[in-house]
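Changelog note: in this version the structure field was regenerated for every chain. One regenerated record is shown below for reference.
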Amino acid sequence: IAAQGCDAGCIKDLAPAALAGHWQEAGGFLIELYKQWPLLLAAEARADIATRRDQAIGALARRLERNPPAGLVIAAGSTGSIPATAELLGVIARLPNGALVLPGLDQALDEKGWNDLDPGHPQYGLKQLLERVGVARADVRDWHGTAPNRAREQLLSETLRPAPTTDVWRALVEKRSDLMVGLQGLALVEAADPAEEALAIALALRQALETENRSAALVTPDRGLARRVAAELRRWDIVIDDSAGRPLAHTSAGSFLCLVAEAAEARFAPVPLLALLKHPFARAGGDAAAFRTMARALDLALRGPRPDPGLAGVTAQLEKKPERPRSAAAEQAHRALQAWWHGLAALLAPLEIKLAAAHAELTDLTAAHLVAAEALACDDAANCLLWSNLDGEAASHFTAKLLEAAALLPAVETSSYAPLFRRLATAVAVRAPYGQHPRLAILGTQEARLQRFDLTILGGLNEGVWPESLDADPWFSRSMRDTLGLERPERAIGKSAHDFAMLAAGPQVLLTRALKAEGAPTVPSRWLQRLEQLVAGFHQHLPREQRRLAQLARPTTPYAELAEQLLAVSRAEPLPRPHPTPPVGARPRRLSVTEIETWLRDPYAIYARHVLGLAPLDALNEAVGPSARGTLLHSAVEEFVRRFPAALPTDAESRLIAIAARLFDEANIPKAAQAVWLPRFADAARGFIALERERRNEIATPHVELKGKLTFDAPGGEFTLTGRADRIDALAGGGSAIVDYKSGAVPSRKQVEKLIAPQLPLEAAMLAEDGFGIGALVADTLIYISLADGAKASDPTLIPEGATLGAEALARLKQRVAHFDEQRTPYYPRVMPFRAGSVGDYDHLARVREWSATAEEA
């Protein structure tokens, strides 16, 4: 409001009752702001920035007007979009030795088009300036000594003329055929996607260097495209000068500082912590290779469920007892990891303490942040890597300014520090002072206004990029803007169009765009669409011999086609399907009943685990999954049945729930998971106890968690079937029942009877052969009990004739083992041979090829 010289007193009239409710709220807030802002400025003895600037410009204008300088005064390159600036430009234009140089004034546009200019037109700002200065367009002369490209200027003027006056195009086609001469030196490249566009631009820039002293520049508002082009030019070891530089947060020093703050703000959760420790700067006063080795060891140690928050949570995770005993070498390595982590935690503890409070002084937070970062970035020679090189110098200046400014600010929420630091670091540009190619540049539209190049490339000419999309204004509707006298939102498009017109008037101009972005078709820039429409109209009306000029030409060098060839990946012959056929001696001779089901469903999983020795790693921050939950629930029920094998106590439910709560605590299950699991198990416990009370009269002796095995002869040697039965109940009337607990869904009766889920039938076969050591018993019933909730726990799935199913399942297993032993059947893969995050024996590819060849010979 201050910059555009509007009357702030009109704010009270902003939101009449006719407007929607949210505009009423916005207007009310602005009215309150208008009342309070002057009071805040007065209390701090400050001035509004825009008001002070306008006052300074006005004072300069009055001084020049009262005391005109004897020397020459030139104002160049401004369109006077700010009223105070326009006033100053008018004063300079009227000085005895003053001159106002207007950038790109269109003197070819007819008066009707000039009078119909809208805020989205490139000449709208200059028209406003001339009206404020009081000078007619006809009185403006060309700068002395220039040789403008009149044909190109005329072409661009007609391309961008106001829409209501485009009927003039027909008359131009009929009367003048030389307008298309302006297409000489103007070419269009349409690439398939942004990657191809960037490479095409890089090829054009690279070709420009083949001519001595030839300069070239890419001008684009698309920072992503600019970074892509800079990266592509490194194919030829060309470092290009990018006027926008790189955000400090994207450099080595800046990213390290951001990672330190974000890891501490996240209470040293595994993912941000490991991202920090794997940064090249992280050394903590030691050797880089040794530090990285320890960081990888910590990565493996933190796999699985997320530890409790903070450094103490990581320490507790490292001190947790392993599920399986470690070897002597592994135990020694783990102790070394613990010692390394204790030293590292001591460096990070002060920053954690600062961030533990809800609020803290910004200076204290920044100081603790920098101390921790410096300590972590020191090498074994006590040199701090953080402040070295160009990005380190920029980071040093940035943090010094941050500390200086933070002293004037009140305490802040500690949770906002990390995002604040990254946001501020992203706004700082880092530019190399030397090393860039002297004849190439990447520029933004503002930096390119007062520069000239032999080849100008205008990149990213798609709607939403150039011009940028207009964001919805949450504060002002169009009628509210009119009330205050603010410019229309389209004024930003007009400024962008002015830049396009100025740049497109160069001697050699290459226009580029991508046909697709992120997989979706793009819309050409409105200026490019107009240019193509105008050219197409001329093409239809020109004589045949002149039509070669009446088209938006493609460049002589097919940059897009060359880029496509460079990016193309040659189609290779597909590899044959994996045919792993290990010798019988390498195949497993011992499987559990649960692995038999896996063997039926996915043979390759058995091959990967038992032959190749591969095991998938747990994920970082992995949710405590069904496996851990099922193990704990099984343990709780097992302990309960062991305690009460006969009659149940009156408070059986509460005792079962208490057992489960204790086991959860002993297993260090995160509190967040316990808050979900324990209430669910409490519901399931009620259903389970109700079922137990019904069945206890039928049970003579319950046996829980019994290990069993069954060995039989096969062509390849003895094969052993193992298993652990959740529970086997010897019944009072003779016979037995095999019970299996599930933490989730249970197999359907049809799946069990069809032996798709053969676990309990195989256990029944083992029981019939006294495989569990409690005597040869007949399994009358197979029972599946779900502990998911109370309703499912009280309604088990009962499968009669367990002994018959067991005999059939064992016969099928023997047949399958014999088939694999005799036919050398390959383990056909159902998943890829390699899994992300897998560890184990990776020299197995040679064995796969060897066994495949052996199978073919056989």
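Spot check on this record: The longest strand covers residues 699-712. The first helix runs from residue 21 to 43.
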